[in-house]
Structures are given as C-alpha cells and as structure tokens.
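Need a sequence for this fold. Nothing fancy.
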C-alpha cells in the first residue's frame, strides 16, 4: 500500500498544491470577472439578510398566539355549563332502607356489576316485597 506524504494540517500534499493553484488563478482574474463575482456575492447576501432580520418576530408572535389560545380556553371553560347532578334515588330506596354490611361488601367487591346496573329494578322489587309482607 502506498502512503502519500502529509502536510502539517494532516491533509495530503495534493491539497496544498490545489490551494496554491486556486489562489494563483484568483490573483490573475481580470477586473470584469472580479466585479461580476462581487455583484453575485452582494446579491446572495441581500437575499439572505431579510429572512435573518425578520426571524426574531416569530418568537413574540408565537408567544402571543399561545397566550390568546390559553385565554380563549379559559373563557370557554368558565362559561361551560357545570355537570348535571346525579338523579335522585328512587323513593323506595330512600324510605328507611339502610344498607347492611353484606350489601356494602357486595358493592365494594365489584364482582356483580350487572346487578349494580339495575338498581332501580331491585329497589322496586324490594318495595313490592315489603308491600306484600306487611
């Protein structure tokens, strides 16, 4: 394997030669070519500059937009109707029926959720049963 000699910057020697050739060709440019290069450079910088100056406007505008959105959500939330109250229990359930510990254990266990969905029916059934026994 052939190794090329390296210069002090760690690059191959041909890069130094290429740099010297480019520098020499730039020194030998005529005034018209230098003028065209300078105009092209100035035009490129002019196109880039307005975007850089306007970039700082986006930060305050974004912050103001976020604040306006937060205010709108807060106003909407404050005017929203409150959640409806739970419906009153059936009269049969209120008429002196107290829960015993077995009922509380059954409710706390969560095993029989189907029964929990039909509490009105069971309250009516209980009221019917009390009417027949009395």
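Here you go.
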């Amino acid at each position: 394997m052939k190794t090329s000699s390296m210069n002090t910057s760690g690059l191959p020697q041909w890069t130094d030669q290429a740099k010297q050739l480019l520098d020499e060709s730039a020194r030998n440019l005529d005034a018209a070519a230098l003028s065209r290069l300078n105009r092209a450079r100035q035009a490129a910088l002019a196109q880039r500059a307005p975007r850089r100056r306007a970039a700082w406007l986006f930060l305050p505008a974004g912050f103001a937009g976020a604040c306006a959105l937060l205010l709108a959500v807060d106003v909407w939330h404050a005017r929203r109707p409150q959640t409806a109250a739970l419906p009153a229990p059936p009269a049969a359930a209120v008429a002196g029926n107290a829960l015993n510990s077995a009922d509380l254990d059954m409710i706390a266990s969560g095993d029989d959720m189907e029964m929990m969905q039909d509490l009105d029916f069971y309250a009516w059934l209980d009221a019917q049963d009390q009417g027949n026994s009395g």
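For context: The mean pLDDT is 76.
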